[in-house]
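Example record used in the benchmark description.
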Amino acid sequence: MCIKKNGERWIVYKFVPEHNHELLTPRSTSLLRGHRGVTRVQKNLILTLNESGVPTRKIMSVLSKEAGGDFKIGCIGKDVENYSGNKRRKFFEEGDAQRLYVYFLERQCKEPGFVYSMQVDENGSMGSCFWADARSRSAYQYFGDVVTFDATYLTNVYKMPFVSFSGVNHHHQTIMFGCALLVNETAESYIWLLRTWQEAMLGRAPSTIITDDDKAMAKAIAVVLPNTNHRLCLWHILQKFPEYLAHVYNKYLDFQKEFHHCIHDTITPEEFEDEWVSILVKYDLACNDWMQNLYNRREKWVPAYLRTTFCAGMSTTQRSESMNKFFKDYVRSSTMVSDFVHQYEKALSARYFKEKEKDVRTKSSNPVLRTCWKIEEEAAKVYTRKSFNIFQEELFNCQRYKMTKVQQDEESKMYEVAPNGKDDRIYYVTLDSRQTQAICTCHKFEFLGILCRHILCVFMKKSNLDMLPHHYVLERWTINAKSRAILEIPNSEGPFPTQEDPILRKNHLMMQFYDIAALGSQSRFKMNHLSLALDKVHKELLSIEDIGEQNLEAGDMSRVDSPMIRSQVISNFSQILQDPQRVPTKGRPKSLRSKNPRETQSVKKQRCGICKVDGHTRNNCPSLGYGTFLGIFSSLSIYY
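Model output (structure tokens):
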């Protein structure tokens, strides 16, 4: 506001800034760009949490707790993302593939059982790569009878799909058997990967492998694993039915219920065949080519055909997809490949820790028994806790069934097993003359490896067994499933950190600092005393570090991050490995829904409110450059 005297009149000029904002409260000014910033202490904490896979929203929650409130943090979530992203890009901006190769070499030096393989094209750029640690290779020797092989589309900055080999251990947990990053998803890439993976697994092929319905995968499996039972993921196939049979789904409300019964509730192939034909005739689908194609491959995905094949209870690639979800907490689409393997190692270590927890729980506690039969007590001593719970459920429910002999000859007897007082499905159990071998029409033992309630009903009422026959206890579900030593794979338990590990030293100091900080925060006098002492110690440590670097011996490998040592490690490679090319991959389209016509209309161009020209707005109008005064003070009011 400006006041001037003009003769006998006072003229008041009031300038109204057009682009100015309303005054903020003192607490809200901390959210302005010029007032925000990440402190040194916050930077260390942000990097530690970010490397551990903690998302930004939870990092902000931790910072708020440490600062004493959201408005006292001094930064917002975008600042945290920018800082962590800039640090990551600065560290991995060049030589990403070379850094990955260095990591593989260093890992192999520390862990002899670690294996890797990398492809290099004619230009020296990294192609597909595969790696597996000693624990994954050893786990395959114990639990590699059934494997799920899935390209999860968990990608990195180069859009290279993450392909995993996974299975299930004796605690029914998902475990990894190695993984890879592929440049593309062609049959040639899968053939190279399967051959490399089988060589790393000591040449042993799985009895069953489960994949999604991918032609390139199917071709590669037929070439590399011709004697392996190839099964298709049931979930992926069922997801396609509403798309290919939309006209039936929308017209007939009972179709979905009948189709579900045909797929999931039929036990024998004959039952499936009858219901399948009935559905084709009822809904006029006999000439549907897509349905005919699925029917021709029914032995690969229909449960009625898979019950007689051991699949460790798996009919889908859900194990791989659950690992995909697990790894998403550690890696992102912007992750570099050299950073990807570090984060993968952290995620894998977390899975191994979960397995150790289950081992300790199984061996240090006793389960609650639900029956008076001794066979239950003996099974608790043999099975892991999860496997025992499955067996216990079957044993307890076998009391609800009654058996009736329906057929007998010199070699076997057949019993009809039905629930008491219920008009439900009837199962048939065939028992041999020695009463030690039994086959049930549900084929649960053949599919899962644990006896069903129908066979247990016959066993308990016929011979009252005190313990399970040894041929009905699969070693892979027992407590001692991993007792056999794998001599071909050295150091299979993986490297354990020693007292010389810098991470352990840091953790030890952090625990001490936490107690010291709690004491120092009790009063301002204690805080000032502690602050002065820390400054003095900080300067002393800096001087000690300088002396230590000068006296560092050439053979000391404790400083593995030294550029000199890194150059010695990679000196056996004839050329510098170039970063991979960014190749787009196939996969699920961005959206499967049909768009509204308004969504496809062209967006109206922006028009400036000052110069009336398209392409910009009044906030960045070029005409404001010549007259700052006019841009700031755009309106003038005269008061008398």
